Amino acid sequence: MTSDVRPPQPLLYDAFISYSHAKDKPVASAIQSVIQKLGKPWYRRRMLRIFRDDTSLAATPELWPTLEKVLDQSRFILVLASPEFARSKWCGMEVAHWLKHKSLDTFLIAVTDGELKWDEAAGDFVWDEKTPLPAVFRGHWKNEPKWIDFRSWREAPNASDPKFVDAAADLAAAVHGLPKEDLLSQEVRQQKRALRLAWSAAASLTILAAGAGWQWYEAEAAKRAAIASEKVAVAERDRAEKNLALARGAADDLVFKIAQGLREVQGMRVESVRKILETAQSVMDELVRSAPDDPRLLRSRAAMFSEFAVTYMATGDLPRAREAAEQSVAISRGVLTKAPNEEGAEDALRFGLTRLAHVKFRAGDITGALAAYRESLDLAKKLANAAPNDIDRRRQVSVGLSHVGDTLMRIGDRKGALPYYEEALGITREIAAKRPDDTEAQRDLSVAIEKIGDLQARVGEIAAALELYEEALVIGRKLAERDRTNMQDQRYLGISMEKIADLRSRSGDRAGALAAYAECLQIRREMVALDPENAGWQSELAVAYGKLSDARMEAGEKAGGLEAHRAALDIRRKLVARDPGNAGWQQALALTLQRRGDYTKDAGDTDAALAAYEESLAIMRALSARDPDNHDLLTDVSVNLNKIGNMRIAAGDVDVGLAMLEDSLAIRRRLVAFDSSNVDWQYSLGASLDYIGNVRMTREDVSGALAAYEESLAIFRRLVATEGRNVRWRYAAALAMSRTGDALVARKDLGEAIKRYAESLAGFQQLSKLDASGTIFIRDIALTAEKLGDQQALAGGKSDALAAFEESAVHFRKLADGDPDERLWRVRLVIILAKLSEVAERPRAIAALREGLAIMEALQAAGRLPLAQERWPDLFRSYLDRWLAENTVSP
């Protein structure tokens, strides 16, 4: 059969697995796992790249064009034949597409169910109800094709079963183009070579170093004998220098391969990594001893330590990572001191300083990281100024600026970070304009724009942040549409959509947020469909489901929200089941369970909520016990302790609940003690103190509550002083002032309470001016003004109290008008009007009572007046009658 002529496509996949999702997902996954790993070297993730669609095409037919393209980009197709496969419309489409455009030589068949028989006379398969192939296959083969029987593993596939591996090896061998025996023997050899490769590489270095060192020594001896034979000396020296250069190049290549390859090994013990790297180091040291003043060899040694730092950091061994990075910098400084004009010496120091800064940042030494980043940036600028037309040098400056900006953001210095980000953006715009077709330059521009957007979002400038994100999105869309097979650009597009959705949600644009989250989800679903085994993409898909779930719940779409949440939780559990030792997957599962607790709590299912929180806490505590210095885990543990503690308190188990809140507080004190510049940790500490203050107030521990509230207020005031535009911090400070006022009232210190309430009210009023919608802080203003009026009235300040009650009434009216069905706000307004009548002059008092009476009569007529307030209309009438009858009597 002649295939259609189609434009050549890059072959990105070695094989495409076509199968029925109804029953063959497990066996398809197991076959894929074996095929792509057979014969795999230790340093590679997979030997072959296999595509297996793990989505439901019936639910998302828009994926077909993508799958069609993937079929064109695959070398082989492997069909899992079964009656379900034969009946599947989508499997039939995949097979038909392949038959139309590809060769029969690239067809592989694995039977999982049914009967596949060959009719020699007809020269075709026997076609009946048990045939596991679709009818589109009829008449395509002249001779019986080879097929592999997987029927005994359909119900319980086992990728570690030697017989299963042997069967899968038949398929893998065809894709590799090797005899099966060769492939299986190669697999055994690869397993035995895994760590031996590192040691043999080190041994090779030893031989190279010894040879080069000896020849260097011989050359020096020859040089000393120059009087006897100058020509011989020169020749010997040249030969030695050539061999030293060869040894240096080989050493660089092998050391870097070892350091970088070890980062790819899953589950290797840290001690094994250390021994291998120390062996490589000893060989490099021996080579340096043979030529101690060779600047290029010293630079190679510095680069070696820099690579070691990254490898140690990948294993979590931060002390050794820091030591290696510091050695790299020290060597580069020494080279620069001895040979200031040595080519590449300043660049090596710049690079080493950046690596050292990365390690220090990871270890929590933010001050040290900032100093190293700044020194690296200074060198980048110096090198760029010396080569003004070198665009790559300009890019290094922009990267250095971003590093400094990121570090300043880490310590909460957003004002200080902004000029660094703006300068970086200016450079990336310049480079992008000069290189409009350079995807890296365009991507850099998008990232630089988003960094300033991130900063604006952190300080509450939502409109400005959204504008920047939208600009970055335009670039991201162009890059993603330019090459839909570039998964990095697709991933960045998904991240951009996620950020825009987050901000739309924060700004109250629920419809816009839902649309953006849905697009983000679709992008990630398509990515996962292309590579279902990519755990990182699966994790990001779970994030998208989780955020879509939140958005749907906020929009009142409870059923859709729970459906998305269950999808996220299902992915998280599968990732953990696939790799139980992966702490990142465990932590993500714990956070998703925490969200499940939030949902079920809001739905009133306290038992389910408590179960979810406690499962989450158990996972986080186990992870934290294994990694006690992991601050993210400590933060997660403290959040769960607060959630469970508050639920225990609400259920009446106050002692247990308060103990959990205090455990959380202790964790947050520890975090702030570790890094007092971390503003997020400071905020969390203030929030914990607020929780504990509330519980102490309910237990009438006024002194303890006041101490907690005042410490919380001091923290929030310090945060506001560092960044006055941060709405979240300003709100927390205003609320803490109000809480402190409550405790002062309980202590009967009315004067100080009035001061705190007045300060709190002013804070909420200022925040309201920043809110374009004018709705966010209404409730806080109404309640705080009422508290202030109560204390001013008790202190005898009737005019001040009247002003406060008037302010409260204005905002309770707004709440009532904004939600006509919410009777709570109407009842609260009635209470304020009653209080107002007690401190107002006769005309205003009468007007207030009439307004309150009208509200209650309307609620009563509608049958919505609460039982507890059923006598209020009569009371208001009596008060009003007395005011109307006498000028001097107050109700």
Written description of the protein model:
Strand 1 (13-18), helix 1 (25-37) and strand 2 (50-52) form a beta-alpha-beta unit. The strands form two sheets. The protein has a five-stranded parallel β-sheet with strand order 2-1-3-4-7, with helices on both faces. The protein has a two-stranded antiparallel ribbon with strand order 5-6. It is globular and about 115 Å long. Helix content is 73%, strand content 3%. Among the domains are: 13-190, Toll/interleukin-1 receptor homology (TIR) domain (Rossmann fold), CATH 3.40.50.10140; 195-363, Alpha Horseshoe (Serine Threonine Protein Phosphatase 5, Tetratricopeptide repeat), CATH 1.25.40; 609-835, Tetratricopeptide repeat domain (Serine Threonine Protein Phosphatase 5, Tetratricopeptide repeat). Helix 7 packs parallel to helix 9, helix 10 runs parallel beside helix 12 (345-363) and helix 20 (535-554) runs antiparallel to helix 21. The protein has 891 residues and is mostly helical.
